[in-house]
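Why this split exists: single-chain examples teach little about how molecules sit against one another. For that reason, every record in the complexes split bundles all components of an assembly together and asks for one structure covering all of them. Below is a record exactly as it appears in the raw files.
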Amino acid sequence: MDTVFETPDALNDRTRAALIDLLYRLADDELIIGHRDSEWTGLAPILEADIAFSSMAQDEMGHALAYYHLLSELGEGDPDTLAFGRSPEQFRCASLVSLPKADWGFSVLRQFLYDTAECVRLSALAHSAYRPLAHLARKLQSEEKYHLMHGRMWVLRLGDATDESRRIMRDGLAAAYPHALGLFEPTEADEPLAQAGISPRESDLRKQFESAATPVLREAGLIAPPNAEPVYGGRTGKHPDALASLLDGMRLVYHTDPDAKW
Amino acid sequence: MTDTQWPIFEVFHQQSRGDPHVYVGSVHATDAQMALLMAKEQYARRQACVNLWVVPAGAITASEYADADMFLHETDKSYRETWGYKTPKTVRITRPEA
């Protein structure tokens, strides 16, 4: 754990491959949740909520860009090509972010679960042995603080408002929770990353996530489904169909002329 | 037209510590905590900010526009201003006799 990697050159091949895999997961999660949340622009229940949600969607896109830059430094190509040039099965995002936006209750629940997971992950990555990642994680933590306050605020308000809101949030949680656990799908990169001190194992992060999410859900009068079966597959490129149609829409303009200069 | 949305909170923004909180606008929210979170994105996502206040609009007591004439200055009030006093262009410095 004592070795620190200041630059990509310091990594051996096995660690480097594992780190690249991790960064694709982080970047693709951010890009796709950012796009999904942006689908509320102009449609959220009130103007204030619309602006706040849209602004956070932009934050997530910004985080994606920062992770794609780290991938570029590791020789994976330029960020635009990474975001727009890969096929759906090359994406490594978890199913949670691919799901359609559904209703406002589902979307704010997803935002809460996603950002709770991200806070847990960033707290760990802030001490990563891969210095460029540790620096970035610390930078992103301040924005995540607000995201978490926002998600928590909506979950607490809607979990305990009316019979209708309670029902929507209960159904939303039942639908979202197994996918949220899928954010921590174990991969072959877990061991090399843990051994190198770059990232904790996914199973450890999942425990921290559940400890962080449960009290807020309980305060909102919601219960995470016990023994929920995590939905895996995203980390190996097996996605809900919704991802392909999202990517088609997102990249429509890009694909009319991939070499265009903006 | 009556406002059918949520209660209104007035928002005050402080750019850096020690600065006055400046009124920037309002947000709709169900309660003060939500108003703070909404105000952050409406009024602090571009400019620098260290602190926000939100105040229920109903907590503000305002004067009547019908009484606006009470603010008029109809008589010469120039004595209240520095420009209301004549000072010589050059100030003669008198020295005490040696």
